TrEMBL record:
The species this protein was found in: Catenuloplanes indicus
Any Pfam family the entry gives: SpoIIE
Protein name (database record): Serine phosphatase RsbU (Regulator of sigma subunit)
SUPFAM superfamilies documented for this protein: PP2C-like
Superkingdom in the source lineage: Bacteria
Lineage: Bacteria, Bacillati, Actinomycetota, Actinomycetes, Micromonosporales
Length: 383
């Protein structure tokens, strides 16, 4: 690693959690003759890039800041250099650096430093509220606060996959959520379609998600994970409350997916520009009955396949007496193949907002997963 990059890393590691941007800006002024470094974080709705210290947000989709965010690439706009800030595929925002260096080697170094900043921001969020608060354009409800605190992030990439998810309405979501974990050659994904209102719905989802994580971290397969979560919910609510869930376990080497459909959200596959449902036998929702035993089902992906999981809050959304419905959703998803997973879920939610003319009344969740196994001789490594 270049000496200046090592210096930037040390600066980020030694800075107080709430001042890492300021300390990094001072370092770049000394080493790169940078006049200003500004951080813009993406907001909870994925619709604004919000400056850390206030000021107008960037909302126009074609703006240089959004091009850097969407394409994970540098964008030079006059005297400004825009760079994406992300960590393992989870896009946090962008930085604007002025003036933009003419030397492409310096810009490449600054891009690496922006990556280091992403990792530092992810760690700093555990110790300060500054960045979480600055990314909000309005106050979260208590239920939404609980739900966002559950999430593993909004995106993740690895050598053989890319995925992303989004909740809606972002600032008032109640029961819908998602989770994932990648380990060696496996990727496990859970999508929950919650029930109920407010904090009661969020509490039920928290119980289900933590039961599923507890079982997963104990090394249980997805069928036993569902069984344990089912028992946890039933023992507390005695069947009065239940939750719909889809559990997926993808073998990243072979593309074989082991699934448990517990009254789950809608699962769709995009292959060769054609969208089609993945047929799974629906089993009882988690917590509905005492002693439910869950069985796994399998299906196989082909390289380049894309999976979508969407909750009924999208399909059943209604505006002016018209239901959004499966046909409109399928047509929209079929055109999303050129988009990244995050751009795809952002577009789905954006299309839904446009359809209903505002935020959804019901909860909605969308998750997009691409399986992109390395080809022969392709030695990809996650960064």
């Amino acid at each position: 690693m270049h000496d200046r990059l090592i210096g930037a890393q040390r600066t980020l590691m030694s800075a107080p959690a709430h001042q890492i941007v300021e300390h990094l800006s001072e370092y770049l002024t000394e080493q790169y003759a940078v006049a200003a470094l500004e951080l813009f974080q993406v907001d909870y709705r994925l619709s604004e890039l919000v400056p850390l210290d206030g000021g107008p947000a960037v909302t126009h989709p074609g703006a240089p800041a959004w091009r850097a965010f969407d394409h994970l690439a540098e964008v030079v706009d006059g005297a400004a250099l825009w760079l994406p800030v992300a960590v393992r595929g989870d896009r946090l925002g962008v930085v604007r650096i002025t003036p933009a260096p003419d030397d492409p080697r310096l810009r490449a170094e600054l891009a690496e430093i922006a990556d280091l900043l992403g990792h530092s921001l992810a760690a700093a969020r555990e110790g300060t509220d500054r960045y979480a608060v600055a990314a909000r354009t309005k106050r979260l409800t208590l239920a939404a606060e609980m739900q966002w605190g559950l999430l593993p992030g909004r995106g993740r990439t690895g050598p053989a996959f890319a995925l992303a998810g989004q909740l809606e309405p972002a600032y008032a979501v109640r029961g819908d959520t998602f989770d994932w974990s990648d380990d060696l050659d496996r990727l496990q994904v859970v999508v929950i379609n919650g029930h109920g209102e407010g904090v009661a719905a969020a509490t039920l989802t928290c119980l289900a998600m933590n039961a599923l994580r507890n079982a997963r971290r104990a090394g249980l397969d997805v069928a036993d994970q569902a069984t344990l979560a089912d028992q946890a919910i039933y023992s507390y609510h005695r069947g009065a409350q239940h939750i719909d869930a889809l559990l997926l376990d993808l073998d990243l080497r072979t593309g074989v997916v082991t699934a448990v459909d517990a009254g789950s959200p809608r699962l769709l596959r995009l292959r060769g520009g054609e969208i089609s449902p993945v047929a799974l036998e629906a089993q009882d929702p988690l917590g509905m009955f005492d002693g439910t035993m869950y069985a796994t089902q399998t299906f196989t992906l082909e390289p380049g396949d894309r999976l979508f999981v969407v909750s009924d809050g999208i399909v059943d959304a209604t505006a002016r007496g018209t239901r959004y419905g499966e046909n409109l959703l399928d047509r929209f998803l079929a055109r999303s193949g050129a988009l990244s997973p995050l751009a795809a879920v952002r577009s789905v939610i954006g299309d839904l907002r446009a359809f209903i003319g505002g935020e959804t009344v019901d909860d909605a969740v969308a998750v997009c997963l691409d399986w992109t196994p390395p080809g022969p001789g392709d030695d990809r490594r996650q960064t």
